[in-house]
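Something for you to look into today, if you have time. Just paste the record in under my message, thanks.
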Amino acid sequence: MTETSDKGLPGAAISRRNVLLAGATGVAAAGLAAPAIAQSGDEQPVIEWKMVTSWPKNLPGPGVTAQRIADNIGLLSGGRMRVRLYAAGELVPALEVFDAVSSGTAQLGHSASFFWQGKMPAAAFFTAVPFGLTPLEHMMWIEQGGGQEVWDTLYAPFGVKPFMGGNTGFQMGGWFNKEINTLDDIEGLKIRMPGLGGEVMRKLGATPVSLPPSEILTALQTGVIDAAEFLGPWSDLAMGFHKATKLYYGPGFHEPNGTGEALVNGNAFEGLPEDLKAIVEHVFRAENALALSESEWMNAGQLLELTDTYGVTVKSYPDVVLKAARMAADEVLATFAEKDPASQAVYESFKAARERIAPWSKISQQAFLSARG
């Protein structure tokens, strides 16, 4: 097992045992949205919440974030709230987090919104959009540009309140078992790529496959899939994808952002006192910023670990593929204007935010990075 941090960050190392445990089928426990109350003598009642996640326990990146959210709610509430975290498969399967929070099986969840694309097509916008917004730009949309409002509206029928809850930063393009030199190399490729990026790959002739994180490595090793994207070097190294192939592609055009999603059961949230509501929201917002800085710092270091220690070759998608993917992305996004009213509202909000932000990003971030070299 390789240590993934030289700074003692919590959860910086992950065992293969924990990853495999996360693939076990979870059994959804029946429950109510109302929080459990623990009381002892004359002490103030303690609100106890369950938190289900889509991640192996302490997975570098989102798993670390989920645990820190649980811990900090307890800390900042002075012990008035306790959050018990269940990793993927411990209470419910990785891809059933949303349903567990909606039904009240758990009061809190941590996942990624693109997993609910089959339920709500526009949900994927709140993790990442191909050729869309960078992490900071995404935060601008949600916090300042009306993104939170359309997100709330989209999830309201399910009794779920969504928040940004962590960010894994810029993503890599993924791990491939063969070189990608032309569009013909994409044709027929079976690739683990959920969300809108998967739909872009479908237009290029690939077959996108949705797999929970714990199943990716085995599928890549056994040939069930030909390629897979997950997150960035920090998480990817911990998951061991370099054991299956040494070809690591970028840029992650499909996910230029990696927003983690904190899901709260609406009844449970509204049942909290106002100060505890504020604490929960503050913990999410603080973790969103902390996780982004942590992930980008660790990605920079772990990329060197992958290349220098494990012999991974980092390659760039050829221009012909990126150009075709960009055109396909425009086509995929345009379809949301014709879907249900909720999807259209999300698309229009995102589009307006990108059009407002892009000119400033071009003369500020893009120009500076080009000048810096």
